[in-house]
Amino acid sequence: MGILSGVLGLVGTCGALYAFVDSCFLELDSDLPNLTLTKTPGTAFVLLLVAIVLKVVDIWAHVIVPVPKENYWAPSGANDLIGNENL
Question: pLDDT (tens digit, 9 = 90+) per residue, 73-85?
Answer without folding.
Answer: 766 666 565 655 5
